[in-house]
Backbone:
């Protein structure tokens, strides 16, 4: 747990844990919410979601009024989300903004998000934090909250996220974990006063690649 007060809990979700149970069931965070009730009358509720293979900051609401407030803030784009990714290749620029609308495409073997001008607007600001041999460490700040947005937008830059089995290249589909981490959240929950600011430590499975790009933390 990264943060807890009377309204909000922020967890450091590990990669590999689904937020919701899939069609075939299996372990999910949703099934464990009762254990996060603490002194509250009811279990917390999920205020947003992360992909199964994405680690990092995940927000829960501890009461219905808090859930409404968080949904309002997310919908208005007032919650700042910061992701760290290690991508394959190297963007030509040091920073930029990707504005590519996205829609879901159903396939026989499942679904994926695709770039489509007729889809939902999706905007991601990004900047390079470090470079290494064949890899780049980038920070992404999505201004919208579309499914798989950061993953699709990194691929659209020509630099798919390392280990991405859906939007990466065939060479990346070798069991390497997805190198995408929800690093930080800034939540202006109270109209007056400072925002809730939370940072999630880097997961062990990303450290080697991050250090190759210049990261010196633990």
Residues:
């Amino acid at each position: 747990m990264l943060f807890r007060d009377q309204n909000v809990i922020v967890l450091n979700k590990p990669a590999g844990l689904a937020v919701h149970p899939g069609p075939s069931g299996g372990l999910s965070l949703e099934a464990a919410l009762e254990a996060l009730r603490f002194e509250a009358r009811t279990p917390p509720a999920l205020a947003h979601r992360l992909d199964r293979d994405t680690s990092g900051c995940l927000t829960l609401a501890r009461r219905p009024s808090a859930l409404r407030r968080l949904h309002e803030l997310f919908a208005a784009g007032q919650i700042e989300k910061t992701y760290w990714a290690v991508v394959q290749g190297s963007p030509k620029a040091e920073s930029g903004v990707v504005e590519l609308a996205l829609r879901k495409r159903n396939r026989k073997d499942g679904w994926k998000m695709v770039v489509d001008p007729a889809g939902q607007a999706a905007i991601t600001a990004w900047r390079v934090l470090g470079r290494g041999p064949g890899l780049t460490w980038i920070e992404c700040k999505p201004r919208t909250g579309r499914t798989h947005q950061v993953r699709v937008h990194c691929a659209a830059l020509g630099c798919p996220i390392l280990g991405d089995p859906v939007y990466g290249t065939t060479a990346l589909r070798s069991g390497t974990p997805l190198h995408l981490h929800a690093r930080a959240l800034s939540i202006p929950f109270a109209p007056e006063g400072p925002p809730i600011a939370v940072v999630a430590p880097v997961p062990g499975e990303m450290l080697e690649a991050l250090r190759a790009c210049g990261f010196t933390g633990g």
About this structure: The CA atoms of residues 137 and 210 lie 6 Å apart. The chain has one domain: 3-212. The longest strand covers residues 123-132.
